TrEMBL record:
The chain crosses the membrane at residues 18-39, 83-101, 113-134, 202-221, 227-248, 260-285, 297-317. This is Uncharacterized protein. GO terms for cellular component: membrane. Keywords: Membrane, Transmembrane, Transmembrane helix. It comes from the Eukaryota.
Length: 336
């Protein structure tokens, strides 16, 4: 959906006008506020989650297994793993076809940024789920392992009989503890990054599909514009797959993570500004064109749309946990 050039975006006059000086603060201030919220809530230990996981948790309070364990115990982790692998194959196939049809120009669209992010999300999630399934299988033998370890540590005499000293036993235990802590810390960091990706992707998907189907398609497309099958897939498959994963996973959806969603959009807008400052080309979305008289209003509307889009998805997650707490009160994983 290419647009006719109204003004040369590479000229200095295109940027030195009142429209740009109104749009720029909207983007920059939003990103600064988002960065401050991330710094305040993500890297502080003052906020604690409630029993249902609706609070604003700091990164250290996440459970390492939330990224691969389903929301209820009746669902085996292999089900979530299978879903993510299938979703990754579907989204990757659609992305490859899109690249083959449109070429590099597709990455000027926020839709393709979101689509690529969804593909990365499911690819990364598949790896974490595969690892989680192995952990789930190993957990069945934990009790036996602990008993054997306890028998081996009943006293120093067994170790001394094998030529070991008491200090050697203590050093071995300390080394094992450090190795276990390193593995746990790595798993926690990987899980935290994945959960941030989930919340950022969910908001971006809602914004992409809402803006296209409710604003761009009905009001800002040419009269002879024909809706292709690939366009429908781009603006529906991502939401369907994310909602399916949301129904299965046991991850939380804290409000302050909207900040990552805002930063993603801000980075995209600044990227488009830089590209158009050096290359005179069509704008991927008419609402980004700074030569339009109502450009500041469009920028403000899209900025404000982040709130209802993220709120709608947060409401879906909250409704899911509410229903599961009524149907599966004893096995709901998020109430640990």
């Amino acid at each position: 959906m290419e647009l006719l050039l109204d003004d040369d975006s590479t000229s200095l006059g295109y940027w030195l006008n009142w429209r740009f000086f109104l749009c720029a603060p909207i983007v920059i201030v939003s990103m600064c506020v988002a960065a401050f919220i991330i710094w305040k809530y993500e890297y502080s230990d003052h906020s604690e989650p409630d029993s249902k996981g609706n609070g604003q948790e700091s990164s250290g309070l996440w459970y390492a297994d939330e990224v691969w364990r389903p929301c209820v115990q009746e669902i085996h982790p292999i089900c979530l793993m299978t879903y993510r692998i299938i979703a990754f194959c579907l989204i990757l196939t659609a992305l490859i076809v899109d690249i083959a049809v449109q070429g590099q120009s597709m990455f000027h669209y926020y839709t393709q940024w979101t689509f690529t992010l969804v593909a990365i999300y499911f690819g990364y999630g598949s790896l974490l789920s595969i690892h989680g399934c192995f952990q789930h299988h190993k957990s069945r033998t934990v009790y036996k392992f602990n008993n054997n370890e306890a028998d081996a540590e009943k006293g120093p005499y067994a170790s001394l009989a094998c030529g070991e000293t008491l200090n050697g036993v203590q050093e071995k235990k300390a080394q094992n503890y450090q190795e276990k802590y390193y593995v746990f810390r790595t798993a926690l960091d990987c899980g935290h990054a994945f959960q941030v990706m989930f919340q950022m992707t969910a908001g971006a998907v809602m914004l992409t599909d809402f803006v296209y189907w409710c604003i761009i398609f009905p009001f800002l497309t040419a009269k002879d514009y024909k809706l292709s099958f690939l366009t429908v897939v781009e603006h529906s498959l991502n939401a369907i797959l994310i909602l399916g994963d949301t129904a299965l996973n046991g991850m939380r959806f804290p409000w302050f993570r909207i900040s990552y969603f805002v930063l993603l959009t801000g980075v995209y807008v600044i990227f488009e500004w830089i590209v158009h400052a050096y290359v005179s080309m069509w704008w991927p979305y008419p609402i980004l064109d700074l030569s339009q008289q109502y450009a500041p209003l469009w920028y403000l509307i899209v900025a404000l749309l982040h709130l209802p889009c993220y709120s709608l998805f947060a409401l879906i997650v909250k409704a899911k946990y509410y229903m599961l707490s009524r149907w599966f009160p004893q096995s709901l994983e998020c109430l640990r």
